[in-house]
Amino acid sequence: MSASSAPPLLLASTSPQRRAILAQLGLPFEVVEPRYHEEDDGEDPVSLVRGHAFGKARSVVDAAGGLTVLGVDTAVVLGGHVFGKPADAAEAGAMLEALAGRTHEVVSGLCLAGPGWEEVDHEVTRVSFRSLGPRDLAAYVATGEWEGRAGAYAIQGRGASLVERIDGDYLNVVGLPAVLLVRLLAERFPGVYDFG
Predict the structure, then answer these.
(1) Which among 116, 25, 5, 118 is positioned nearest to 71, based on CA atoms?
(2) Burial class (CB in 10 A: 0-12, 13-18, 19+), 85
């Protein structure tokens, strides 16, 4: 069986970045908006993203018609503090200033789920920002690219100019831990999606 004839994954996310990564990997998929409300209960970042990924996947698995559901949640973490999506340009600038010249982690939880089963795991990628002056910060915030982005940047866009070094899965920083997804698909469905 080839990936083109494999059953589609049901992506419990409306993220265009996640759709693009699945397409890049050659995986068949359909999209559904999860019926899940994210709450930060003060958990450690790994438990938080794993719990959100699980919640997103489980929120649609009953209506998935037997398809495998994929739920993902990503957080930017610096010194144990989780940076979510900034509410406005001022908050975006403050986040970027805090990340400047330092190394943070992009932590993603991933859940694959089907009728009566689920697998939950996570991936961590370390990202180092270069030193950023007021002009750098203002220029990036002015692009508006920070809107709707955890940590206030998009590495696949102009945000790449902020980054000095990356250690780990680049696509995890974009929005989906591709290496982890491929490994889990290869283990659970050997050969079905052309992996394993």
Answers:
(1) 118
(2) middle
How many independent structural domains does the chain possess?
A: 1
Residue 163, domain extent = 3-188
Is 167 an annotated catalytic residue?
A: no
Q: What is the CATH number of the domain that holds 46?
A: 3.90.950.10
Residues 15-49: tens digit of each pLDDT: 999 999 999 999 999 999 999 887 777 789 999 99
**Residue 195 domain flag:** no
Determine contact, residues 154/85, Cβ cutoff 8 Å.
no
Check 40, 41, 44, 73 and give the catalytic one. 73
State pTM to two decimals: 0.92
